[in-house]
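Narrative summary of target 7.
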Amino acid sequence: MPSSPVAGTPKPAISRGRLAIAVVSTVVEWYDFTLFLYLSSVLSRVFFGDSPTGVLMTLATFAVSYLLRPVGGLVFGYVGDRWGRRPVLLASMALMFLATAGMAALPTYAQVGESAAVWLLALRCLMAFSVGGEYTGVMTYLLESSRARNRGLVTSLAASASEVGALLAAGVSALTVTALSAPQVEEWGWRIPFIVGGVLAGLILALRSGLPETPLFLQSRLVTRQQPLPGVLRRQWRAIIRTFMISGLCSAAYYVGIIYLPTYLISVRNWSESSALGLATLAAVVVVLASPVAGWLSDRYGRRATLLILAIAAVLLPLPMFAAAGQTNAGAAVAAVVVLACLAGSLSAVGASAIPEQFEVRGRLTALAIGGTVATTIFGGIAPYAVQTLTESTGWPLVPGLLIAVVALAALPAIRRGPETAASQDQQPGPMPVSSRTTADADAQGVKDHA
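Modeled conformation, tokenized:
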């Protein structure tokens, strides 16, 4: 008998076409979510008027709303572990559609005054709540529906597709602010990118309605229907801590090194909005290309080895790269952005499989909400506001690079001591010792044997 039912399956139980829908659907998720940061300098004027603290207030809105992400993760985690991964994918995208369409229809500061900022915060909270179940739901769905030897590549394709969404958000934002005059953008043009996002979300919701449930979840229901949370805390607390550290590193590198970058270049380095968004578009392209390569390498050489190399790079590179990004030399700035994008994209791609693989099938989404989503809230949602505040108060422009390096240094011990979760050894025939199996695969094997 193969050591892992995922690895032993000759082909995915779910068709490639349906897997492709799950992969591509992450385009909408990251388009809708990153659009807010890409347009933060514009939105600060639209919803906070000419306030000198407008950019900080806009980032604070993003940070405060992000506190709803772990709440959404716990709610969707409970739903996903009790009733299935498919309901999570449908419900999270439906809420995302409502939040994005609502953004396009919001009144501005010029129309209703300070109450515009209240409505903005409410819709960002709804968006953050939905994303709490969206990304982990998609990655878990793909992980449980693909062959073990290709899990890293398949989930990295979803990470790459999500960056296509960020690329699309950066491109649409750049096109909008370039094609229209500043008064036109602030009066009505800022709504265009959100209208595009609402249309995309509605389309993906319709496509997702045809997705089946994952085979591993259906098998796990034969073993137990217990409440996920108590079992998760009792059996998997070490994996939760490890996941927190890995997710924190991935989030800091991505949100600070990529998503926050346009705001940093505009507000700290005095770049024009069109130039900063142009570099953000380049960064998104690099992430799209680097992600599948990193996912394939993690299948070939293992998650732990790949993450260790990337974590060491995250300690050494961010400070000099942020220094180069602020130079007037265009070549140095472009090179720095490319390096930061390769680093962030590779970490996100490997983390997409390594993080959910830390847990058993039973309670997986709940565990991800406790470990991964909380870390993303701290190092992803709050970090842009924190580094902007520290940069402005200290006058030191390299604060963002220092944050990434410190988080990477803290994550190194957790990565080094953690188990290898890749299934490259499953490509060879014959049983594998129980001690070397991944937690997720061992649990899945027990589920299958019981069934």
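The radius of gyration is 21 Å.
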